Each structure stands twice: as structure tokens, then as C-alpha cells.
């Protein structure tokens, strides 16, 4: 069996995008892992699958699988790539579309030829919804690790995140501490671990250790979580430019119950077929 695919990336956060509208796609965990493998497969951080809508409140159904084969509910860079894929494949020519994920409905708008904005539900700081092992919501949490007690913010933007302040982003222990916190019992469903250096009220630098993937070149949901955690404490303005390894993203949030907005590029690398 041959499967058609498109390789895409959002500032280096790379994806295999699959059309489940015109193909019958039933991939098991082993197959997903093999496709994601950079030595034995195509290689990617996440696999994205676009399928027909399941109800009238959205245009398409959007599934996201991390490189370890586990399905997750959010991927900001992936959503922008999905919008470009839908336009390039001719599935829709609407300037704004809605896609349903495992746990929410997202709105995508084409702002310009290579600038796509994602509108997502407000972040949640409720420990039960993140989820995390806290009995009540706090401004920050202290987590005991082999590297000592780590202070972080915790929230969900459709997937669980921890946010850590650092003073030197380039020398932050992203791999070591990321591994320790990603699988910590404090996060029963694991978590994405974001390291944030604040440059000014409207500029941040972010590095993210993604659950089930490792450090990626960019993480859209991680940028949203990082901005929201700081915005809640009035440390940044309503619109923030976030610097990543290969470019910038813009995150907007007015706070409280308002939606989050993430804007940035999406790039198509190549189309191909792979034998399963």
C-alpha cells in the first residue's frame, strides 16, 4: 500500500501531512513511529491528518500525532501548515476555516501569502484541566526533580505546558530538565516544557522540549503558553513577538476569557509517496 503525503514545516517544526479525505488512512502506533523516524522513515516532529468534518460547526477534522505515535490535542505550527495544505490541495478556498481537533475547535485565517493566524480557545490555568497534580490553582508551582526544586507556571492551551523563566536561553538545560519535567508525576499526561527569556514587554525568546518528541526548532502552542503565563502576571503586553531558532511568531492575548491568536509562516517542502 502506498500513502501520499506532504512534508511541511513551521519555522523548522516539521510535519508529515496526510489527506484522509481521499485516502483511507488507518495507521497503528508502530507505523506512525516508523514514518516519523528520521533514519528509517520520512522524519518529522508530528504527523497531521486532515479528514472530513464530523459536524456542522467545523470545516475539517484535524488529528495530530507526536513522533512517538501518541495522539495529542494541539499543535499551533501544525495548524498553520494544515491551512496552507488545505488551500494548496484545493480542499477549500475560504480565507477563514474552522478545524476540530481531539478537544477543541480552532479558527484559521490566511492573513497574507505566507502569514497564517490561528485563533484558539482561552488558556486554562485550572489544575484539573491542565492536568497537573495540584489541589488548587497557584501563581506558580515548585516541582522536586533530580536537579533540585524547579519553579514553573502550568497551564493548558489544548495540551499541557510548563513555563520556566531563564536568564540565558542559549545555555538553558533544555534537554536535561526538559526530560525530567516532561515525564514528572506532577503531569499525569506528561507536558511540554518551555524555557523563556524575556527581552522586553513585547519580545520573548522561547525554546521548547515537546512531550513525545524532544526539543523542536519551534513550538506554536509552547509560544502561546509562554506568552499567556507571562501576560497573566502583566509581565508582557497584549501582542508579543517571539524569537525562535529560525524566525519569529506573533502571539496576541487580551487576557481572561479572550481567545489566543498565533500568527506566522507555513512552508511546503515536498510531496511524495511512501510504501507502508
UniProtKB/TrEMBL annotation:
UniProt KW keywords: Amino-acid biosynthesis, Cytoplasm, Isomerase, Lysine biosynthesis
Swiss-Prot/TrEMBL site (Important for dimerization) positions: 270
Active site per the UniProt annotation: 75, 219
Coiled coil: none
Catalyzed chemical reaction(s): (2S,6S)-2,6-diaminopimelate = meso-2,6-diaminopimelate
Binding site for substrate: 13, 46, 66, 76-77, 159, 192, 210-211, 220-221
E.C. numbers: 5.1.1.7
Intracellular or extracellular location(s): Cytoplasm
Pathway(s) where this gene product acts: Amino-acid biosynthesis; L-lysine biosynthesis via DAP pathway; DL-2,6-diaminopimelate from LL-2,6-diaminopimelate: step 1/1
Marked site (Could be important to modulate the pK values of the two catalytic cysteine residues) residue numbers: 161, 210
InterPro entries, A to Z: DAP_epimerase_DapF (IPR001653)
Domain of life: Bacteria
EC class (word): isomerase
Stored HAMAP family: DAP_epimerase (MF_00197)
Family named by the database record: Belongs to the diaminopimelate epimerase family.
Subunit structure and binding partners: Homodimer.
UniProt function note: Catalyzes the stereoinversion of LL-2,6-diaminopimelate (L,L-DAP) to meso-diaminopimelate (meso-DAP), a precursor of L-lysine and an essential component of the bacterial peptidoglycan.
Identification of the protein by name: Diaminopimelate epimerase
Name of the gene: dapF
Amino acid at each position: 500500500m502506498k500513502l501520499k503525503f506532504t512534508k511541511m514545516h513551521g519555522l523548522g517544526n516539521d510535519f508529515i501531512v496526510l489527506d484522509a479525505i481521499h485516502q483511507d488512512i488507518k495507521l497503528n502506533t508502530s507505523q506512525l513511529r516508523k514514518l516519523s523516524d528520521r533514519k528509517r522513515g520520512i522524519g518529522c516532529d508530528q504527523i497531521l491528518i486532515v479528514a472530513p468534518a464530523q459536524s456542522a460547526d467545523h470545516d475539517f477534522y484535524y488529528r495530530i500525532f507526536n513522533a512517538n505515535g501518541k495522539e495529542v490535542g494541539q499543535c499551533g505550527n501544525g495548524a498553520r501548515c494544515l491551512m496552507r495544505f488545505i488551500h494548496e490541495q484545493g480542499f477549500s478556498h475560504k480565507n477563514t476555516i474552522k478545524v476540530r481537533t481531539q478537544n477543541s475547535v480552532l479558527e484559521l485565517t490566511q492573513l497574507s501569502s505566507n502569514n497564517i493566524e490561528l485563533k484558539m480557545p482561552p488558556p486554562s490555568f485550572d489544575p484539573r484541566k491542565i492536568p497537573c497534580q495540584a489541589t488548587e490553582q497557584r501563581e506558580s508551582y515548585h516541582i522536586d526533580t533530580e536537579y533540585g526544586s524547579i519553579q514553573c507556571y502550568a497551564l493548558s492551551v489544548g495540551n499541557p505546558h510548563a513555563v520556566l523563566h531563564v536568564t540565558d536561553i542559549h545555555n538553558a538545560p533544555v534537554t536535561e530538565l526538559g526530560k525530567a519535567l516532561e515525564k514528572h508525576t506532577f503531569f499525569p499526561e506528561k507536558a511540554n516544557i518551555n524555557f523563556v527569556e524575556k527581552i522586553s514587554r513585547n519580545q520573548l525568546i522561547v525554546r521548547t522540549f515537546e512531550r513525545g518528541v524532544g526539543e523542536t526548532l519551534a513550538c506554536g502552542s509552547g509560544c502561546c503558553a509562554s506568552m499567556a503565563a507571562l501576560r497573566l502576571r502583566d509581565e508582557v503586553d497584549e501582542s508579543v513577538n517571539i524569537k525562535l531558532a529560525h524566525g519569529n511568531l506573533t502571539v496576541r492575548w487580551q487576557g481572561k476569557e479572550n481567545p489566543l491568536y498565533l500568527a506566522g509562516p507555513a512552508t511546503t517542502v515536498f510531496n511524495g509517496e511512501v510504501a507502508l
